[in-house]
Design a protein that fits this description.
The structure holds two protein chains of two kinds.
Chain A: E1 8-16, H1 22-33, H2 40-61, E2 69-76, E3 80-87, H3 94-97, H4 112-123, E4 126-131, E5 137-144
Helix pairs in contact in A: 1-2, 2-4
Chain B: E1 3-10, E2 13-22, H1 27-40, E3 44-55, H2 57-72, E4 76-80, H3 84-93, E5 100-102
Parallel strand pairs in B: 2-3, 3-4, 4-5
Antiparallel strand pairs in B: 1-2
Classes of the chains: A alpha+beta, B alpha/beta.
Chain lengths: 152, 103
């Protein structure tokens, strides 16, 4: 999966599945999205959601191995921010990545990965997970840009 | 910025003052410090989160683990002055009412 066909792709970043790189990714994403009129709070939420998507690829797709490849693409269409993340590790089962109405708090069975997916759906207007053609996972996240008037 | 953890004794409680970003890379260090404090404390554990610039879901899971470990020992566990980033992630997780918060 790639960005929407109408999107201008501004960044295509290939990174290793190493958790120590996440801080640098967060800084890049924050700087990028702050160019498009999002409030500081929204920028932080977007950063959190992208960080969670990367962390899920590291923890679940590559099972903690730091040598996997994660491809992050950042771009915009006329009215939306578009972010795609691709990995080539284990494909996640759909029940792990589908949108659920947040369940009542259950401390005993809380899974960090599950929380991360929940954050992604909470932050973005549209989230689509698909299996990669040769394994792995693609996630496309879209959020309406606040710098575009309604109806544009 | 990595993670810095300072340990201070406050009567029977242990206060861990956390500075930096808590994510998939740094949360194991925080977990280790919390579990050590749980073992050593007779009155409970306080996490001072004033200077936490970022926290992700692995950080939240670590806090939950700390809460459970203290609860098993019938000890108090509280979060002191959680930063805006910490509160945000607790609210998104709907766990902000689960923790005892000192402001």
């Amino acid at each position: 999966m790639t960005l929407d066909i109408t999107a201008v792709r501004d960044f295509r970043l290939e990174l290793r599945s190493d958790p120590k790189l996440l801080q640098a990714v967060r800084k890049l994403v924050y700087c990028y999205v702050s160019c498009y009129g999002f409030s500081d709070e929204q920028c932080r939420e977007i950063v959190l959601a992208v960080d969670e998507a990367c962390a899920n690829a590291i923890r679940h797709s590559y099972v903690g191995h730091p040598g996997g490849i994660i491809m992050l693409q950042l771009g915009v269409t006329r009215n939306s921010l578009e972010i795609c993340l691709e990995d080539y590790g284990r494909t996640a089962s759909q029940d792990k990545v589908c949108h659920r109405t947040p369940a009542p708090v259950d401390l005993e069975h809380m899974q960090p990965g599950g929380l991360g997916v929940q954050f992604i759906y909470q932050v973005f207007d549209e989230v689509r997970y698909t299996a990669g053609s040769d394994g792995g996972n693609n996630v496309r996240m879209r959020l309406r840009r606040p710098d575009i008037e309604e109806g544009e | 910025m990595g993670l810095r953890i300072e340990t201070n004794n406050e009567t029977t409680k242990i206060c861990l003052r956390i500075t930096g970003e808590v994510d998939l890379y740094t949360s194991p260090e925080l977990r280790k410090a919390i579990m050590k404090a749980v073992t050593q404390s007779s009155g409970g554990v306080i996490l001072d989160l004033t200077e936490v610039a970022y926290m992700d879901s692995s950080g939240v899971a670590t806090l939950v683990e700390g809460l459970k470990a203290n609860s098993d020992k019938k000890l108090a566990f509280s979060l002191r002055h959680p930063s805006q980033s910490v509160m945000k992630v607790l609210q998104l997780s709907r766990l902000d009412s689960v923790f005892q918060i000192e402001n």
